[in-house]
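REQUEST FORM: STRUCTURE PREDICTION
Request ID: SP-0412
Submitted by: Lab K.M.
Chain count: 1
Length (residues): 447
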Amino acid sequence: TQFKLVYPSLYCGFEGFLIDNDKRKELRAAREIVVGKMLEELQIMADDKGNIHAKKPSGFNPGSYRQVQTYVYDILGAKDPKIGFKKVDGKKQRIVRGTDEKNLSAVGEQHPILFAFTSRIISYRENSKAISTYFDFVQKNGRMLYTINPFGTETNRMASSKSNFWCGTQIQNIPYYAKEMLIADEGFILCEPDNSQSEARCTAYLAQDLNLITALETPGRDFYKSLGTLFFGMEYEKVTAEFRNLVLKKIVHGTNYMMGPDTFIVNAGIENLLFAANVLDVSIGPDAGQISMKAFATLLLEKYHEPFKRIRQWYAEVKNEIRTTSMLRSPLGHVRYFFGDIDKKHQIFASAVAHGPQNLSVSILNSGWWKQWQLQKREPEDFRMKAQIHDSAPFQYRKGREDIRVEAIECFNNPTEIHGRILKIPVDYKYGTDWGHMLKGAPAAHT
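STATUS: Completed
RESULT:
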């Protein structure tokens, strides 16, 4: 079942994306300006401003762990969160005065000034790394190549890295600001079908939570906006796009992966949580009448389980299945073995809960992707598969062959029986001449 996906995976990696190099240079320059402004702001905050444009830039360097340690722990007086371990001479040791994202995020919870400083350091590092990763990779004949590995994850989701030809970069996490440089070949149009809210739907059907199924499938209602009403009593029309995307989607993601409050704070981002607190009129701080950031994160995660009470019962069923059989079997027959004591190791439990929806979601997607491979072999001149990216599978089709586009999207219409109910995952799609500017297509008319 999985090995046959090697063939479309190899095809996509060799096909790659055509690059508009003029646009790439333009986007890279724009990103450098953004990163430069971030550095200038950090140097002002550190009161250590140098010449960032010199061959050897001077002043505060947020990429230097020693300088960050000095400013964060010695000058600003942050308490050491001591998050994580490292190996020294083969032995695990607690990380002290850490400057990685988890430690800096924890430091940011201690005081608004620390948050202002550490959050900007994290953002600067992410954006600096992105420039080399997504703009400076080696090209092959003006194309970005990559590998797609059907065996790269425990859940059967694809993994991606740069091409085995020592060029390109991974395809699955291209940031929005770099997609515009990836374009359709001459005479072709790009299209990206996407299985809508696939993982949430798989969770609902695996857990047999009728309230969650209803929330997902109520016609004319956006699932995430509906959560604003279910969780916080907000009027549906008053749930803003910002609150939907920065808060409600994060809560769903956090509960799907059984995150604790500390992990959720890092994943959701302190800035987003402060935004949520402001909208919900919650005061965060150490004073009377205020709550801690950790308590607020716990409150948000708990909100998910108020309307969807069946989810926790399903958690217990998953744990019991692994406790008694050491394995988890999907409704489609996939078996994953688990090693270790699930009652003592929370990591095993969290992995098991996340596995079910992820594996089911990608199994349904893979079924459609395999159908597309048959289309690829039948129409090699007018259809080209590009990749599989989480819940989507971009491709390009020749102009005038809209019939191929319709058929390629229809490949992902795969109703699946789960615990006696038929799960139908709607397929959305976008199309255009570059990956960054794509128009939303009309709803697919499934047969």
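NOTES: DSSP finds 15 helices and 16 strands in the chain.
Reviewed by: T.R.
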